[in-house]
Amino acid sequence: INPKFIEAAYGAGVSCSAVGEYQRAIDWFNKTIELAPKYQDAYISRGISYARLNMLQEAIDSTLEALKLNPENIKAQINLAAFLEKNGNLEHAEQILIKVLSTCPEEARANHNLGVIYEKLGRLSKAIEHYTIASKSNPLNKRWNIDLENAIRKK
Question: Is-above-0.90 flag for pTM?
Answer without folding.
Answer: yes
